[in-house]
């Protein structure tokens, strides 16, 4: 057992990627070093978050909202800059597209050789920071298709099936990195004393059904009737429980391990919902399909949705196959009646 534990401790993330691919090809090496860079970004952000916690406490006593808002904003900007500087040095990524930047950030020196684009939400759920609750980073990697000279990143406006890797980092009681390169979903836990992400679960499979439904019921009267029908159903039936943390990565992580469904439907104010397709919904959809689950806009698979712009939003219903299908059945039922 001790030998096994030692083997596990020596399975670093970059090693794990190469084991997955059973190849040492250039592409495999690229992916391995890209994942290593993601891990470095996660370590830097994790360390800063604990300090931000201290700063926020100190600043928080002043009760200055703008100061707290500033520290949260500083965190978003800090995390965004971490990804940029970590990937600048990678020599592999030509372009970074993030929720924090209107346009993609180009790394010209990487473009002739850099074949990848990193799409990411550096700190998702940052409003949770000032109440010391979990937040996350979401990322995915796509192949760069040609160099667009006008910086329009048109080649990014394609379906999520184009993703070659995706995952998230959950900054919770421990910092966990969950990823897939298309060969199953695997999780690593950061050992701060080692400064390494250590393999914790391999080939994670989401239960086919689970008890959890995760949605902001404060929007109940903002939704279409079909979503209200679903909520009435789970209220009436035994075996369901509501869990909502207000930060997508933590809410999704809970569903991945315990089963159930997370929903952020369209509302009257935002018919396309609040969550972004390219760097929030699509990476999680990639993961959940690899884990045997489903992700839907309500009418089509998230991975088939094609954005019309970089920061396009989408409704998101994601989790266990049976639970996503149940929500979709209420939506199609109402469509038939319409
Ligand atoms: P609401 C956080 O702001 C976020 O982008 C996601 O992390 C989270 O799932 C959602 O918005 C929460 O939105 O409207 O329920 O507060």
UniProtKB/TrEMBL annotation:
<feature type="binding site">
    <location>
        <position position="280"/>
    </location>
    <ligand>
        <name>Mg(2+) 2</name>
    </ligand>
</feature>
<feature type="binding site">
    <location>
        <position position="121"/>
    </location>
    <ligand>
        <name>Mg(2+) 2</name>
    </ligand>
</feature>
<feature type="binding site">
    <location>
        <position position="124"/>
    </location>
    <ligand>
        <name>Mg(2+) 2</name>
    </ligand>
</feature>
<dbReference type="GO" id="GO:0006000">
    <property type="term" value="P:fructose metabolic process"/>
</dbReference>
<keyword id="KW-0460">Magnesium</keyword>
<comment type="similarity">
    <text>Belongs to the FBPase class 1 family.</text>
</comment>
<feature type="binding site">
    <location>
        <begin position="124"/>
        <end position="127"/>
    </location>
    <ligand>
        <name>substrate</name>
    </ligand>
</feature>
<comment type="pathway">
    <text>Carbohydrate biosynthesis; Calvin cycle.</text>
</comment>
<feature type="binding site">
    <location>
        <position position="121"/>
    </location>
    <ligand>
        <name>Mg(2+) 1</name>
    </ligand>
</feature>
<keyword id="KW-0113">Calvin cycle</keyword>
<feature type="domain" description="Fructose-1-6-bisphosphatase class 1 C-terminal">
    <location>
        <begin position="206"/>
        <end position="330"/>
    </location>
</feature>
<protein>
    <recommendedName>
        <fullName>Fructose-1,6-bisphosphatase class 1</fullName>
        <ecNumber>3.1.3.11</ecNumber>
    </recommendedName>
</protein>
<dbReference type="GO" id="GO:0005986">
    <property type="term" value="P:sucrose biosynthetic process"/>
</dbReference>
<comment type="subunit">
    <text>Homotetramer.</text>
</comment>
<dbReference type="GO" id="GO:0000287">
    <property type="term" value="F:magnesium ion binding"/>
</dbReference>
<dbReference type="GO" id="GO:0042132">
    <property type="term" value="F:fructose 1,6-bisphosphate 1-phosphatase activity"/>
</dbReference>
<dbReference type="GO" id="GO:0006002">
    <property type="term" value="P:fructose 6-phosphate metabolic process"/>
</dbReference>
<dbReference type="Pfam" id="PF00316">
    <property type="entry name" value="FBPase"/>
</dbReference>
<dbReference type="InterPro" id="IPR044015">
    <property type="entry name" value="FBPase_C_dom"/>
</dbReference>
<dbReference type="InterPro" id="IPR033391">
    <property type="entry name" value="FBPase_N"/>
</dbReference>
<dbReference type="Pfam" id="PF18913">
    <property type="entry name" value="FBPase_C"/>
</dbReference>
<keyword id="KW-0963">Cytoplasm</keyword>
<feature type="binding site">
    <location>
        <position position="123"/>
    </location>
    <ligand>
        <name>Mg(2+) 1</name>
    </ligand>
</feature>
<keyword id="KW-0119">Carbohydrate metabolism</keyword>
<dbReference type="GO" id="GO:0030388">
    <property type="term" value="P:fructose 1,6-bisphosphate metabolic process"/>
</dbReference>
<dbReference type="GO" id="GO:0006094">
    <property type="term" value="P:gluconeogenesis"/>
</dbReference>
<dbReference type="InterPro" id="IPR028343">
    <property type="entry name" value="FBPtase"/>
</dbReference>
<keyword id="KW-0378">Hydrolase</keyword>
<feature type="binding site">
    <location>
        <position position="274"/>
    </location>
    <ligand>
        <name>substrate</name>
    </ligand>
</feature>
<dbReference type="InterPro" id="IPR000146">
    <property type="entry name" value="FBPase_class-1"/>
</dbReference>
<keyword id="KW-0479">Metal-binding</keyword>
<dbReference type="InterPro" id="IPR020548">
    <property type="entry name" value="Fructose_bisphosphatase_AS"/>
</dbReference>
<feature type="binding site">
    <location>
        <position position="99"/>
    </location>
    <ligand>
        <name>Mg(2+) 1</name>
    </ligand>
</feature>
<feature type="domain" description="Fructose-1-6-bisphosphatase class I N-terminal">
    <location>
        <begin position="12"/>
        <end position="201"/>
    </location>
</feature>
<dbReference type="GO" id="GO:0005829">
    <property type="term" value="C:cytosol"/>
</dbReference>
<feature type="binding site">
    <location>
        <position position="244"/>
    </location>
    <ligand>
        <name>substrate</name>
    </ligand>
</feature>
<dbReference type="GO" id="GO:0019253">
    <property type="term" value="P:reductive pentose-phosphate cycle"/>
</dbReference>
<feature type="binding site">
    <location>
        <position position="216"/>
    </location>
    <ligand>
        <name>substrate</name>
    </ligand>
</feature>
